[in-house]
Design brief:
The protein is an all-alpha fold. The protein is built from one helix and no strands.
Amino acid sequence: MKSIIFLACTTLFFSSSCNHINQKIDDELNQIQSKADSIDSLVNKKVDQVKQIDSMIQKGTEHVKKIDTLVQKSQSQLDSLKRKGSQMIDKVKSAPSKP
């Protein structure tokens, strides 16, 4: 009879301990989940910031390409004017002098 009472008390003690341990584990898991959610939110905000910066860089790159195209066109026009000017100077130099 004593062993049955001892067994019942031991079972109640372990059952109570297991419930307490389970509650602690659940609390810890909830805290971990909360922290993971916070980190996930922070990571998402940073990813959005990186996307915004990337978009700004792409717009800047497009502007640089447009400016580069304009510079190349201007360079081409200047080269053309220079060639025409050189040709005119060469014609003047090669023209016979009037006595």
